[in-house]
Design a protein that fits this description.
With 567 residues, the protein is an alpha+beta fold. Helix content is 33%, strand content 21%. A hairpin with a 3-residue loop joins strand 24 and strand 25. Helix 13 crosses helix 14, helix 15 runs antiparallel to helix 16 and helix 17 packs antiparallel against helix 18. The chain is globular, with a radius of gyration of 24 Å. The mean pLDDT is 92.
């Protein structure tokens, strides 16, 4: 890492810059890109971050999820700073920052750098000059049947062109691969944990589609598309887009780079705001919900079997964080519909569980010990759904403090699950419910309470979320995570996460659980629960038993039945 920083600094004179900006994302703004320039320069492996390398000092900006991790991985060579200080960044002034215009948006540049500093666009990425990661970018994408997705591409396109006409736009440029995948009902292999394919899509208000991608990704099949589409080699995109003139073009302010904005704005009027596809795909249809439930049932069986296996074996044999997550993966792999993890599994015991987005490595791998809390946050990509679940498991932990904190986290989790959505209908209102019981003891957690989740797509999906700042209205069909927690540095971490979806019952909107995994009873102080909370836990676990018991062996079934009696 230090050597890479030195090599980068030597380039500053050539390009006449005082520093260089390295975001986590790639040219497609994907969360789990197979290219990780940020890690190359900073050693930071988290999913969100941005580095600025100056002539004599380096900064790494991250959020509360990575406070401990970023210090461990990058603290020797970087000053770790919270993302909030990146807004109108004044940690340094009057410097010229080199920027790759293909990996930053106009809004980011304006928001972060233009008040106190200058920028210079450098189209050849300087990190690629140091180390260019080789990836297979030619794997073909595949189609999802309407029986799985519940809506044809033509139907989606009709809705989208209607948005264009209402907003008086001639074109929309779909720059986010997950949105391209959703519109065309395709999935691919270009992201580490998400079934997206690197592609961009230009749609005009009459419904013409121009797809830009590596042509080797197009499957060799007669039934190539059931709609009118023109396919172009990705390298030709700038040449093609440059021919458009005197039109209004809608660009997504989150995933359209300043590079493409500049291509369009030379001859056209720009409408820069959120791509409407984000909200369209956030609201799942009945078929998607039915299939998501199926994936969670399969996932719940795997997790339930794993939890009992862990409880029965951690005293008998050596189980490490890595071997535990591998065992969990083996349970998931038993079902044919399982593809791969939906994100890096967080498998942390004892002090490692206090690192919010901890990823076990050979260097940090702990053996699970009696008295530990073990936190496992994992998910799967299934051929008809995406899962994400966290359970904190007691390995004969006797700490009253841990038990009381776990119960307060659980009370917040239940408060979210039982929200009156007609009253608290935006994320920031629901977030307060999750933190209420921890806050009474002056405790809190440094992450949001929930994020949107895709349908066999990104495990983190907007625009809805449950956080202190989110104002998006929660709608019927949305899927979100419910994951309050607490982390005591160098001691333990606690998180309880279910996925829920918004359902209408008797004209009222409610959350219904998708996750079918028992919650750790041995960490609950039942004296802190009221009757409604106890009833919720009983019904939740009874529902799990009724749905998954027939897939369990006699021993597993007995354990789950005994488990329920505690509620």
């Amino acid at each position: 890492m230090k050597k890479n920083i030195q090599i980068l600094r030597k380039k500053f004179e050539k390009y006449k810059i005082d520093g260089y900006v390295v975001p986590k994302n790639d040219e497609y703004f994907t969360e789990y890109s197979k290219i990780n320039r940020l890690q190359i320069i900073s050693n930071f492996s988290g999913s969100a971050g941005l580095a600025i390398i100056l002539k004599k000092k380096n900064y790494l900006f991250t959020d509360g999820r990575y406070t401990i991790q970023s210090q461990m991985e990058s603290g020797k060579n970087f000053e770790i700073v919270n993302f909030e200080k990146l807004i109108n960044c004044s940690l340094f002034k009057n410097v010229k920052l080199g920027i790759d215009p293909k990996i930053l948006t106009y809004q980011q540049i304006k928001k972060y750098f233009l008040r106190y500093n200058k920028i210079k666009f450098i189209e050849e990425n300087l990190i690629d000059q140091i180390k260019r990661e080789k990836i297979n970018d030619t794997l073909p994408f595949f189609w999802l049947d309407k029986k799985i997705v519940g809506e044809s591409s033509n139907s989606k396109l009709n809705k989208l062109t209607s948005y264009l006409r209402k907003n008086k736009s001639d074109f929309i440029f779909i720059s986010a691969p997950e949105n391209v995948a959703w519109i065309l009902n395709i999935r691919g292999h270009d992201s580490k944990f998400s079934p997206t394919t690197n592609a961009r899509l230009l749609i005009d208000k009459k419904g013409r589609l121009d797809l830009f991608t590596n042509l080797k990704k197009i499957p060799e099949t007669d039934n190539i598309f059931d709609y009118k589409i023109f396919v172009h080699e990705e390298k030709e995109i700038e040449k093609f887009l440059s021919k458009i003139s005197n039109r209004t073009v809608w660009l997504d302010n989150q995933s359209c780079s300043i590079y493409y904005k500049k291509v369009f704005e030379k001859k056209n009027k720009i409408l820069l705001k959120m791509d409407p596809v984000y909200l369209m795909k956030a609201v799942k249809n009945k078929t998607e919900i039915k299939n998501i439930k199926k994936s969670h049932l399969i996932d719940g069986i795997a997790l339930t079997k794993f939890i009992l296996w862990l409880k029965e074996n951690f005293k008998k044999k050596k189980i490490t964080e890595i071997s535990a997550q591998n065992k969990l993966e083996s349970f998931r792999k038993k079902h044919i519909s399982y593809k791969y993890p939906s994100f890096n599994t967080i498998s942390g015991s004892g002090p490692n569980s206090a690192i919010i987005h901890y990823v076990a490595s050979l260097k940090t791998n702990r053996t699970l010990k009696r008295g530990d809390l073990y936190l496992v946050d994992s998910g799967g990509q299934y051929s008809f759904g995406t899962t994400d679940v966290t359970r904190t498991i007691s390995l004969d932990n006797k700490s009253k403090f841990a038990k009381n904190v776990f119960t307060r986290v659980l009370k917040g989790h239940i408060a979210v699950a039982t929200t009156n959505i007609d009253k608290d209908n935006i994320g920031k209102k629901i977030d307060k419910r999750a933190r209420k019981f921890l806050n009474k003891s002056n405790l809190d957690y440094a992450h949001g309470t929930g994020h949107g989740v895709g349908f066999f797509l990104n495990v983190h999906e907007g625009p809805q979320s449950i956080s202190k700042v989110n104002n998006i209205k929660i709608r019927e069909g949305m899927v979100l995570s419910n994951e309050p927690g607490f982390y005591k540095k160098n001691h333990f971490g606690i998180r309880i996460e279910n996925l829920v979806y918004v359902k209408k019952i008797n004209k009222k909107l409610v959350f219904e659980n998708l996750t079918m995994v028992p919650i750790e009873k041995d960490l609950i102080n039942f004296e802190l629960l009221n009757i409604q909370e106890k009833n919720y836990l009983f019904k939740y676990h009874l529902d799990i038993y009724s749905k998954i018991s027939k897939y369990l062996n006699i021993n597993e079934k007995k354990w789950l039945a005994d488990f329920i009696q505690h509620f």
